[in-house]
Amino acid sequence: VPRRRSQTMRAVLGRAVGVRATAAGSSGSRAGRAIGTLGDARARSAAWRPHRLGCLPATAERDGVVKAVGQGRRHFARAVVDDDEPTYASGDLAGYEVFHHEKPFALATGAVLPEMKIAYETWGELSAKKDNVILLQTGMSASSHASSNAGNRAKGWWEDFIGPGKTLDTRIFFVICTNNLGGCYGSTGPSSLHPDGKPYGSRFPRFEVFDQVAAQFKLLDYLGIYKLHAAVGASLGGMQSTCAASRFPDRVGKFVTISACAKSFPGSMAFRHAQRSAIMTDPNWNNGDYYDGALPENGLRLAREIGTITYRSGKEWQDRFGQGRLSEDRTGLQHEFQIEKYLSHQGKKWVNNYDPNSMLWISKAMDGFTLELPGKDGKPCLKAGLAAAMQPALVIGVQHDVLFPVWQQKEIADSLRAAGNKNVVYYELDSTYGHDTFLLNQITIGPAVKGHLEQEPGGAKHLWEEKSATFHDILQGVGELTSAPDMMRCIFRALAKGTDSAPQHELLSATKLLLAAGGLHDKRIDGIFKHKFRSQKQVSMKEFLEIREDLTSGVLETYLP
Fold first, then answer.
1. DSSP letters along 420-459, please?
2. Which pTM was predicted?
3. Whole-angstrom distance, CA of residue 380 vs CA of residue 85
4. How far is 484 from 39, CA to CA, in rounded Å?
5. Which range (18-32, 147-161, 291-305, 468-482) has the least confidence?
6. Rounded distance, CA 156 to CA 145, Å?
7. Which pLDDT tens digit goes with each residue over 440-460?
8. Which residues are catalytic?
9. Which residues make Cβ contacts (< 8 Å) with residue 329, sequence separation at least 6?
């Protein structure tokens, strides 16, 4: 029996290692297959369901990092919304961490923040060389909760893109997502406390998109991460990823920019101006100092309605609503048509979910964004501004995008190529979801991004090879073992690499591979690990051995003596 079990385990591990080695060696072909799906831009989408939030929580500080532990003073992000629309503000925001930069932070506008906090969440495990990091950069109103994790099980705004085997594959990548500087979900913004103990409000300094990126790199410095495998972003996040590649070229290996620009244009600036006007003309705005009074919710609702018009496309609304009426009653003026009710609902979603001042300050930073630098003739030039961004680049645009017209993404790709970048891939999608395609259409966005991140040059081959080597060590060690404790010790030593602990997610993966032939389902093993280790990132050998009885109960009693 032991020899048959050994042979079975060899086969299971052999297949697992073979699959990973093949994935590493054929990433280019896999990317090609993924890219082949892009023509079907109207295929089924992955939608997000919003969840209740808790914004601006109280915190407990430890060694420069703060963990969210409770509710805070202002009532943003409390509304309960139930629909199938995407939302950046998702989950209850529990479990994120906050990096506290205690020194003054100089802004590109000339102002200085006396201190700064950046909320962030992570997925996957940081490699020993710290070379597997993906910085996920977000849009204007996003929280750091891009996906569920051990600290917060609520679905995130990019839930279908992050995880084992997904677009941002957490089997090999360590993903970091922040709440932007100027936001209201844990990072320093207008609703944060001034040193005098009162909210900044109108006193919050103006900043630029570059400052948001610089703040993210301060976080990376704190975490001891020098170079990113890739910077990935859409909308404002796509502006940031391009900015990171051009302004921090030695610290970015690849970048992905989706539905973004390298320079804001008057059309999108005009929309944002209308949104700001809606808020600033609300009497309750009080020049930005409303935190002790009524929220300017009427202005906020209208700002969100205007924004929604730019996030989707007329073609989608024609197909979805047409001129459909709610009723034949024409005696009043309220919500006669389906599109009116839809926009009104979207406006209400933002009330108590997002700080109006965050919208004002961040949108102003977006309006002033440009990566131009003086060219040979001394005039502002994108070719000169992107000359340092020689990393492999993926640029994706959407034909029906109203907010960031597709010519802006083509402008990024053309400017990169003109500057001498030989590794630029540009895709143009015909999705009728418009600007929100990057949130809704995983089947078209996901494969292209995954292929770009994992294919050479600068791909994930070395990461897969490291995984394969680890499983090879396990395979050699457990081949002739007959007892469960010895087998578990062997697994642990191979993954701990000479230390006194091993990553929980790697122990989980190895356990699943070894016990699959014994009839124990993955969900059962997941449950055992979750119950025992919860959100622990590292597990000691003693702790690992303590789950032996759970693993060997029931169907495994004859499998592991």
1. T-S-EEEEEE--TTGGGHHHH-HHHHHHHHHHHHHSSSS-
2. 0.77
3. 39
4. 50
5. 18-32
6. 5
7. 888 999 999 999 999 999 998
8. 235, 401, 435
9. none
